[in-house]
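Example for tutorial group B:
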C-alpha cells in the first residue's frame, strides 16, 4: 500500500500588509495566530496529515479576510476566527458538510472560468 494522499488541503494566507498600506490584510496582530490554531486543532483531533494545512501568499480576497480555502471543493471561508475554525473542522472536515454561513459572498467568489474559455475571452 502506498502513502495515502491527504483528504483535504486547507490554504490559509499569511500575508500581512505593511502598516499604513491601504490594502486590508489577512494577518493582523489580532489574527496572526490563526494558522497555528488551525494546525494545533487538527493535531488535537488526530487528523493532521490526512488534512494538510498550507500557508500561502495572498489569495486576492483580502477585503473579506482572514480567509481560508478548503480543497477539494473550492470552499472559501471568510472573516475567520478561532470559533469559526472549530466549527469548520467539526462540521466540514470531520462531518462532511460545508458551513454555509461562513462561506465568502458569492459575488466575491463566483463560478470559475475554465482556462480554455479565459484564453478565448482574451482573444488568444
Ligand atoms: S492576504 Fe489573504 S486574501 Fe490577500
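The residue assignment follows.
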Amino acid at each position: 500500500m502506498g502513502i495515502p494522499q491527504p483528504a483535504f488541503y486547507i490554504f490559509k494566507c499569511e500575508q500581512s500588509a505593511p502598516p499604513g498600506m491601504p490594502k486590508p490584510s489577512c494577518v493582523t496582530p489580532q489574527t496572526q495566530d490563526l494558522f497555528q490554531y488551525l494546525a494545533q486543532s487538527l493535531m488535537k483531533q488526530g487528523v493532521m496529515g490526512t488534512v494538510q494545512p498550507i500557508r500561502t501568499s495572498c489569495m486576492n480576497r483580502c477585503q473579506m479576510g482572514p480567509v481560508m480555502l478548503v480543497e477539494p471543493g473550492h470552499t472559501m471561508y471568510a472573516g475567520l476566527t478561532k470559533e469559526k475554525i472549530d466549527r469548520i473542522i467539526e462540521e466540514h472536515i470531520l462531518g462532511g458538510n460545508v458551513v454555509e454561513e461562513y462561506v465568502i459572498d458569492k459575488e466575491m467568489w463566483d463560478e470559475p472560468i475554465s482556462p480554455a474559455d479565459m484564453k478565448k475571452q482574451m482573444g488568444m
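The beta strands are 8-13, 51-56, 68-71, 75-77. Compare this with the pattern of hydrophobic and polar residues in the output above.
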